[in-house]
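Problem: given the chain below (79 residues), write out its structure.
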Amino acid sequence: MSSWDRNRSPVGWYVASYLMRLIEINADGKKNPKRRFLSWENTFLIKAKNLDQAYAKASKIGRLGTEDFLGGPRRVPMR
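Solution.
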């Protein structure tokens, strides 16, 4: 019997989440830390052999949604 390790899932699944911030690229004051902005949290399950692999997979998933796009009916440049 092996000892319990809180950093290793006994079933191979890990819960991961990341926060996304939505900004208009050309907006004034977008770097103001006191300004309010839209954000949301995405939470998901990851199948991995260990915590390091789960973290790497979660980081990769989080980076997938960071490309610039045109948002809304006015097609405003967003990030």
